[in-house]
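Render this sequence as a predicted structure.
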Amino acid sequence: MNPESEIQNPKSEIIVAFEYRYKRRVEFSETDLAGIVHFSNYFRYMENAEHEFLRSLCLSVHARAEGRLISWPRVRAECSYDAPLAFGDEFEVHLLVRHKKRKSISYEFHFYKAAVERPIARGIVTVVCVAIDAATGKMSAITIPEFVDRQIEAAPADRLLCPTLD
């Protein structure tokens, strides 16, 4: 989506979402000399899952809406690892909306390796909704726009798996 294009608020059925699943395979370029995924790539995987979640709702992390440029910078990101991924492994990133406040959203991520029941890694990312001043580039936190707010809700507490990451 072109960040300068105006987001159109769909008038059709509104989907309210709190989760998204994103599948992929580990690429060779994502591994280190030990042959496992470099830890920094888990943050990319979380961001990709967030982008796909928002796209599934016809939203974007950086777009013009309501006459202003709106974005979602990260203010917190963390990940804990229980087992490695290696080149060629298939895995799924399961995104859940952990919290939704007036100006921020926290996502929880569970990483599942194919054929493994328990998560091999878990992460949390918190983003803040901001308007970007076109002249200065200055970001100012704003209330989440209503057309975004009505489409995203927090997941039920019994679905969340990261109580120790708070």
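Summary. Confidence is low (pLDDT under 50) at residues 1-14. The chain has one domain: 19-153.
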